[in-house]
Every structure is written in C-alpha cells, then in structure tokens.
Amino acid sequence: MDTAFVSRERDRMLRELGELLAIPSVSALPDHARDCRVAAQWLVTELERLGCPVVTLIEGNGHPVVWAESPPVEGKPTLLIYGHYDVQPPDPLDEWETPPFAPTVRDGKLFARGAADDKGQVYCLLKAYEAVRGADGRPPLNVRFIFEGEEESGGHAIFDVLRKEPWRTDVDAALVCDMSYYAPGIPAVYTALRGMCYAEIVVRTLDRDLHSGAYGGVAPNAIETLARMLSQLKEETGEIQMAFCPPRTPPCGCQYATRCPSGVKTLQIMRAVVFSPRSQGMTEKVDRSGMRYMSDSAIRAKPSMEEPSNHLPWLMQSSS
Ligand SMILES: [Zn+2]
C-alpha cells in the first residue's frame, strides 16, 4: 500500500471531493432530479478512472443506482461497499455560514451539504480503493460498489434492483459507509445497525362513544390495549420479541420484504394482546355481573384491529 498517498494527493482529493459536494443532489426535491443524475454520473466517471471493468448506471423508477466491480482477483473474498450520493435538503438556508453547495474549509473542517452524509464517506472509500491497488491496478480483494441516490428520500430504487438481482449482494462482507466517527481522529466501527418499519395501527374496542361514568370502569379501553401491545414488542431486557419475516415478497410490495423486522410473531403478540383472555374475560365478568349496559351493541365481544396501511394486511396473512 502507498502510505504517502494521503499527504501527496491531499490537494487533488480536496478538489475532487469539492466537485462532488458542489452538486446539489437533493433526492427529495423533483427540481434536483437532474443534479442527482449528475452526481451518479460523477461516480461512474470516477469508478471508470479507477479501472473498474464493470461500471453501470442501473435505471429504474427513481434515481439511478451506481454499480461497479473491481478487476477480478482470483481466490480472494469479495467486499461490497454501500453508500449514497444524494443529500438532504439544505434548509434552513440562513443557518449556513457559507452556502451548502459551495464547499468551504473553516478551522480545518470542510463544510458542505453531504460532506458528512454521505458523499464524504463514499469519496473516502473510493480513495482507499485507489490507494490499495497494486501496480497492475488490482485491489487485494474483489470489490463491488453500490451507491444509491434515494437514501434520504426513502425511495425504492435499490430495493427494486436487489429484489430482482439478489446476486449483487452475494458477497463475503458488506461495508456500509454511511456513519460517522466518534470524534476527530477516533475511528468507529458501528455494529447492530437496523432499518425502519412503519405500521399504522388502529385499535378499536367500541363502535361508538360511551358515557365515561357509566361505562368507563368496564368497557375495554383502546389506549390501554394499544399500550399493552406496544409494551410487549420488547422484553424488559430490551430483547426484541419479533421474528424476521420469511424471505419472500409480500403481495403489498412492502420494500422490507426480505428483512422486515416485524412479522409473524409481532402479529401473534398483537393478536394475543388484543384478543387476550383478559379482554374477553372482561366481557364475561361484566356479563356475569348482569350489568345491563354490557349487552349494548356498542361494546364488541372482541376488540378488533383495523389496518389502514398496506403493510399490515400482509402481516395478517403471514400469520395464518
Ligand atoms: Zn446517509
């Protein structure tokens, strides 16, 4: 490895990184769609310059995904490097001391939108790749690059690509360069990262409003039920009480298909709580006490869950 690389190439690297940071590739704003493409193309040009024999822009419904492969290195493992070339909108603009897309060095730090998330990290890894290549232009192991342009806007492009072509992640290790150092000069390795799964849950225990004084003590309470459901998603020790989804595409087209942190067990927990013997017992108890209002049709024999989002129906299905 060329150890003098950084000090020798510093000015050139600052200039190159400045070029990339100056592209306002804000993926969430349609006005910047062209800029996202310019940033993707910038990476394509750089990967070609670094001697990758396979460099492609994978087109889909959203901003393109950049894919590249190093020259093959026989008998060595394969590393997949992930990053994103899009950035968040720079608002509020009046809080920037210098314009967000005019990279500026102040007190030894480089300021620009994307400098820390994630163009800076992407660029670092490209330069690391450049530095470790041998005289023949080959790195010491096989490297794949995948850079997306919708990380900041929750787009589906990379999921669409990987669902169709899962072989792209058939590697020995994946490196996600989308995190930060703990402090200047102190590198950090992050573990146990995870994604997000959204669900909108409506718990309904009654068909209509009931008088709180007359019914409050016995009618099943939706807020209490929901609180109980949520409290059971994790153990007291912090352990998640959820199984991973089976690796298949749900009919709702959920982008979290193969690694949805919710799933069968979540639903079972929800069902167990909502339809727990206790909530049914409540009804029975009331029935036994002969309270007239419990025969009111407004009180359901069983509380029900309604699912307005497109995720939950699949979860419902997967449990049966
Ligand atoms: Zn990021």
Helix-strand blueprint:
Elements (H helix, E strand, L loop, with lengths): L4 H17 L11 H17 L4 E5 L6 E5 L8 E7 L19 E3 L2 E3 L7 H14 L9 E7 L8 H8 L8 E4 L25 E5 L5 H4 L6 H10 L32 H11 L2 H13 L9 E8 L5 H7 L2
Parallel strand pairs: 3-6, 3-7
Antiparallel strand pairs: 1-2, 2-6, 4-5, 8-9
Helix pairs in contact: 1-3, 6-7
The structure holds zinc ion.
The site of zinc ion (ZN) has 5 residues, from loops.
Task: Produce a short descriptive summary.
The protein is an alpha/beta fold and 320 residues long.
| Low-confidence regions | 244-320
Our estimate of the beta-strand percent is: 5-15%
The CATH architecture of the largest domain comes to: 3-Layer(aba) Sandwich
Order of helices and strands: HHEEEEEHEHEEHHHHEH
User: Order of strands across the widest beta sheet?
Assistant: 1-2-6-3-7
Radius of gyration: 26 Å
Number of E strands: 9
Straight-line distance between termini: 56 Å
Counting copies of identical and different chains, the oligomeric state is single chain
- Biggest sheet details: 5 strands, mixed
Amount of helix:
25-40%
Question: What's the number of structural domains?
Answer: 2
Describe this protein with a few key phrases.
Aminopeptidase, 2 domains, 9 helices, disordered C terminus, binds zinc ion
Please explain how this structure is put together:
It is a single chain. By secondary structure, the chain is α/β, with parallel strands linked by helices. It folds into two domains: 5-176, Zn peptidases (Aminopeptidase); 202-318, no CATH class. The strands form three sheets. Strands 1-2-6-3-7 form a five-stranded mixed sheet, with helices on both faces. The protein has helices spanning 5-21, 33-49, 119-132, 157-164, 212-215, 222-231, 264-274, 277-289, 312-318, and strands spanning 54-58, 65-69, 78-84, 104-106, 109-111, 142-148, 173-176, 202-206, 299-306. It is built from nine helices and nine strands. A hairpin with a 6-residue loop joins strand 1 (54-58) and strand 2. Mean pLDDT is 77; it is low at 244-320. Bound molecules: zinc ion. Zinc ion binds at residues 84, 117-118, 151, 178. Zinc ion binds next to loops.
